[in-house]
Design a protein that fits this description.
binds iron/sulfur cluster, 196 residues, 3-stranded mixed sheet, 5 helices, Phosphorylase Kinase, domain 1, elongated, 3-stranded antiparallel sheet
Length: 196
């Protein structure tokens, strides 16, 4: 083949264009109609990454109660559509892979509150209403039993008997409400991995 400078540049340009189209999925092989979009017939839910204090926005595509796809939220000011490797793995909260590499529902995913009652060795599943009622009652009882109004002649109105740990899964608005509950009930021990 007689390769001139001009024909070399044309060949290089055509090769680069083909590689680019393949990379973005426009080549003939990847456009197979037998591979439907993973997000087809899904409900799009916007949430916050569960893993660290950065609080990146995530879009979850959910079908029949199971997350089938996760992506960074392009409208979220924290990450503008990007996710780190941990955030990208949200998909695996719902799915794990079997020995043949096929996705199957994650058997370790907790979907209900658990309680280990006094003296029991096993965990028991609860309905959400019952779990919230138990948590609220114990919160109130503990606060009332250990509330300190005065210390060294100074009004303090606090309790040291409860501590509150926030969650990276909570957004700004939820953390604002948590702070209201914490201060209005006299807690002084609280923290959050993002220090919100
Ligand atoms: S995507 Fe990564 S950086 Fe963002 S909140 Fe999740 S773990 Fe943190």
């Amino acid at each position: 083949m007689d390769l001139t400078r001009r024909s070399f540049l044309k060949l290089a340009g055509a090769t680069t264009a083909a590689a680019t189209l393949t990379g973005v999925g426009l080549n003939k092989a990847s456009a197979s109609p037998s591979e439907p979009l993973r997000i087809k017939y899904t409900k799009e839910i916007h949430t916050v990454c569960t893993f660290c204090g950065v609080g990146c926005g995530v879009i979850c595509n959910v079908r029949d109660g199971i997350i089938v796809n996760t992506e960074g939220d392009p409208d979220h000011p924290m990450n503008e559509g990007t996710l780190c490797p941990k955030g990208v793995s949200h998909y695996n909260l719902s799915y794990v892979y079997d020995t043949k590499g096929n996705p199957v529902p994650n058997p370790n995913r907790l979907t209900k509150p658990l309680i280990r009652r006094p003296g029991a060795s096993d965990w028991e599943e609860l309905e959400w209403d019952e779990a919230l009622e138990i948590a609220a009652r114990r919160y109130k009882e503990t606060r009332d039993d250990h509330f300190i109004q005065q210390e060294n002649g100074v009004t303090v109105n606090r309790t040291d008997a409860i501590s509150w740990l926030g969650s990276a899964f909570c957004n700004n608005e939820e953390n604002y409400l948590f702070k209201k509950i914490i201060h209005s009930t006299g807690l002084v021990n609280f923290d959050h991995c993002a220090r919100l």
